[in-house]
């Protein structure tokens, strides 16, 4: 079975492919959706990860008849911020109007904005989670939905260089490391995307 992933993000594709390879008893291949770069992006204006994932999966599957298309929505939820950045994780600094050097990479701007938002927050309030929802659709119909989460704490300074997004700030107490400090094989066991994909594959099988 081939699943066509509606993302060009190399970090996401890496997580998904590694998770698929780890699931015993499945013969699944993940590929980027053909012609993705030429398909206009749909609006991501749903208030939940599930809503956005389902909307994107249905939309992209209508552009590729007969294919099983997988789309995700994922992000960081922080207790002290009432669940923000949430569905706006990729646009957090932009939404906040955070004054900073626009020449910096987007991930760096978002991380700096998050640190500013959490100034003065107690360690308990800095708890949060990565949350991913995956939806699979064919010909506009949703055929499976699954989610995955991983709990952690937001640090006061970035650590590590291996991840992307908020990984340098997302600390896993049980390992004593941030997501950006983990070896790829270890990160796979804790990845919210990996957990969501494993559950999705179980549903589809």
Automatic annotation (TrEMBL):
Keywords, in A-Z order:
Hydrolase, Magnesium, Metal-binding, Nucleotide metabolism, Nucleotide-binding
For this UniProt entry, which residues form the secretion signal?
none
EC number(s) reported in the record: 3.6.1.66
Which GO molecular function terms does the record list? Answer: dITP diphosphatase activity; ITP diphosphatase activity; metal ion binding; nucleotide binding; ribonucleoside triphosphate phosphatase activity; XTP diphosphatase activity
Pfam families reported for this sequence: Ham1p_like (PF01725)
| Catalysed transformations (reactions) | XTP + H2O = XMP + diphosphate + H(+); ITP + H2O = IMP + diphosphate + H(+); dITP + H2O = dIMP + diphosphate + H(+)
Q: Does the keyword Iron-sulfur apply?
A: no
**HAMAP family in the record:** Non_canon_purine_NTPase (MF_01405)
> Self-association or partners: how does it assemble?
Homodimer.
PANTHER family associated with the record: INOSINE TRIPHOSPHATE PYROPHOSPHATASE, INOSINE TRIPHOSPHATE PYROPHOSPHATASE/HAM1 PROTEIN
Name of the molecule in the record? dITP/XTP pyrophosphatase
The species this protein belongs to is: Edaphobacter modestus
């Amino acid at each position: 079975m081939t699943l066509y992933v509606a993302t060009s993000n190399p970090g996401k594709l890496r997580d998904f492919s590694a998770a698929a390879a780890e699931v015993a008893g499945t013969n699944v291949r993940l590929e980027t959706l053909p012609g993705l770069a030429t398909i206009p992006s749909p609006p991501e204006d749903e208030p939940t990860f599930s809503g956005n994932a389902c909307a994107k999966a249905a939309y992209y599957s209508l552009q590729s008849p007969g294919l099983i298309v997988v789309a995700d929505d994922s992000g960081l939820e922080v207790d002290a911020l009432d669940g923000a950045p949430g569905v706006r994780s990729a646009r957090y600094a932009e939404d906040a109007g955070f004054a900073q050097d626009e020449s910096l990479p987007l991930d760096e701007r978002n991380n700096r904005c998050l640190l500013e938002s959490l100034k003065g927050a107690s360690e308990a309030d800095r708890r949060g989670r990565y949350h991913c929802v995956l939806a699979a659709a064919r010909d506009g119909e949703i055929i499976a939905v699954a989610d995955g989460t991983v709990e952690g704490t937001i640090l006061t300074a970035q650590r590590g260089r291996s991840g992307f997004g908020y990984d340098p700030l997302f600390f896993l107490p049980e390992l004593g490391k941030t997501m950006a400090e983990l070896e790829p094989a270890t990160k796979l066991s804790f990845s919210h995307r990996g957990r969501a994909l494993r559950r999705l594959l179980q549903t589809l099988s």
